Amino acid sequence: LAKTTQPISMDSYEGQEVNITCSHNNIATNDYITWYQQFPSQGPRFIIQGYKTKVTNEVASLFIPADRKSSTLSLPRVSLSDTAVYYCLVGDNRNYGQNFVFGPGTRLSVLP
Amino acid sequence: DADVTQTPRNRITKTGKRIMLECSQTKGHDRMYWYRQDPGLGLRLIYYSFDVKDINKGEISDGYSVSRQAQAKFSLSLESAIPNQTALYFCATSDPDGGRNGYTFGSGTRLTVV
What we know:
The complex is a heterodimer of chains A (112) and B (114).
Chain A lengths: L8 E5 L4 E6 L7 E8 L6 E6 L2 E4 L4 E4 L5 E6 L8 E9 L13 E6 L1
Parallel strand pairs in A: 1-9
Antiparallel strand pairs in A: 2-7, 3-4, 3-8, 5-6, 6-7, 8-9
Chain B lengths: L3 E4 L2 E4 L5 E7 L5 E7 L5 E9 L2 E4 L6 E7 L2 E6 L8 E8 L8 E3 L3 E5 L1
Parallel strand pairs in B: 2-11
Antiparallel strand pairs in B: 1-3, 3-8, 4-5, 4-9, 5-6, 7-8, 9-10, 9-11
């Protein structure tokens, strides 16, 4: 079971780029890295998933170094509406649900 | 309509009562999950089901039971509710190919046991 470590909280200002790093030193060969966003009283929302190198979608980018022991979620030009909790999950998609653990996440506060 | 619908949205119940939380999904996925979230904490897996005939315990299944009535429906029951089961409960579903697009969560049920 790949344990993840991420900062408990971060502050940023509107318009800045925000990078949230997650450590997962014991990631397994078949594990993928997935990031979720959660607003208060809502269910988490899938943001992005990757296996190695860089993945980009319309919302964020995910950077994964060659050793895969960490990953960085990058949110370009954040706005107040990006204030949320961000979770990093690591696990094997073939057994999705059996070994995915949502830790406390990173609480991002975007200030005006 | 939402992809994953949970009912009720809010519920207050008394200690010792049996309560059922319901979940239905329109994604057509085989995989469904129940999670619990306590204030300031992450989500913990209660039960999961990979198809109609498959039920598995998660990290914190004690005091809970589930029923997979159909591919689209997955219910969570608290046999005898206790105050420390007060929490936000989420149902989720994932792709049949193992979740390449992640989980899709419902909006949650806020349960208070008094």
